[in-house]
Amino acid sequence: MSTTAWLNPTATERQGILRRSRRVAIVGASGNPSRASYFVASYLLSSSDFEVYLVNPRASEILGQPVYASLADLPHPPDIVDVFRRHDDLPGVLDEALGAGARTLWLQLGSWHDDVARRGHEAGLEVVMDRCLKIEHARFHGGLHLAGFNTGVIDSRRARA
């Protein structure tokens, strides 16, 4: 049982966020292929119509794309800020997202911050926590087969013989 009061958007609401969005900024993008941010960036660049901006102050190019030092450096306001940063960094990322004119703050799997969610919501942002943007995009766009699924339903039960 969760002790948090925050409720994530429903699946239908998350699908609406993705449909309304054109630009995604990945904060904490990495050039390391073993990192989740690399995999998500690779997927979004190859399997979506999103304009993808990579943000990392310590990199200049990842996956052949330019990397921006901060959200303030992006050429256009992002619709979604997809965050791959530590818990303690999230309040600062929220401030940057608000300053950049983002509409949605999306915290990846395992990332949850009630205060950031509350502050973001009060400032007019849609906030999604503990969800993978790649999985959600694939789920709503029939791309789960890329991860070995093609049914649209994730289930751990064995098929009956």
The CATH homologous superfamily is called NAD(P)-binding Rossmann-like Domain
* Total of helices: 5
Low-confidence stretches: 146-152
Sheet with the most strands, sense and barrel status: 7 strands, mixed
Walk me through this protein's architecture.
- The protein is of the alpha/beta class and 161 residues long.
- The protein has one domain: NAD(P)-binding Rossmann-like Domain (Rossmann fold, 3-Layer(aba) Sandwich).
- It contains 5 helices and 7 strands.
- It has a 7-stranded mixed sheet with strand order 3-4-2-1-5-6-7, with helices on both faces.
- Strand 6 (104-107), helix 4 (114-122) and strand 7 (126-128) form a beta-alpha-beta unit.
- Helix 3 packs parallel to helix 4.
- Residues 146-152 have low confidence and may be disordered.
Keywords:
single chain, 161 residues, alpha/beta, Rossmann fold, 7-stranded mixed beta sheet, 5 helices, 17% strand
